[in-house]
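Notebook entry, structure prediction.
Reason for the run: the old model in the group folder had no record of what sequence produced it. Starting over properly, with the input documented here first.
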Amino acid sequence: MLGELVERIRIRWLKRTTAREMESERLRRRFRERHGVEVGLYSYGCFDPRRIPAGTVIGRYCSFAPTAQIFNADHGLGFLSLHPYLYNPACGLVERETISRRSCRVGDDVWVGHNATILASARRIGRGAVIAAGAVVTRDVEPYAIVAGVPATTRRLRFDRATIERIEASRWWELDRDGLRALIRDDPDFVYRPAAVADTMREDAANAALINRMNPVREVADDGAGDRGA
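New structure, fully documented this time:
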């Protein structure tokens, strides 16, 4: 108990502010080495071993509410009893753990809302996904999906497929803070209205195709007549 209390105080000290939590390499190294949790740069809200279990891998730029939780195992549904006496060696009745634990991989830029729960049956949360407040996720979530409810179901995608392809091609999540600042400054339309930018590009392409149909380029075959003498 004392060791757990000391660890919680140490984590709190390492986090100190939200900005430090987003950027601290020391905090990430401690969670990787001591708790078996990989957290990408700029992600926050997930530095709590009571809510984020060992084996979890979290990408960059993720946002976790302080009440969101991930589970990596279930009670022994097929056992005689559901009690941890039957599977947890820390309780003193069994010598080794008798349940299987799984790992969850959370992609970059995922938002996990308040009181959202990701169960052990969900192995992968795709990049750019949204887990709504109070959702109970029981299966994998595709990239850029918004899921909600109990059990969570996909309500819609954040963007159309063309916009998603353009966002994926940009690989913006690989940028550091300065790179993201430059992107915001240089291409605010893409940052704040990526769907509108994709619509504009499609309209421009359609207009260009229409102009080409209305004004076809006529090719004149060169039969070499200009090389002949009179």
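Summary: Residues 159-214 form one domain.
The old model has been moved to the deprecated folder.
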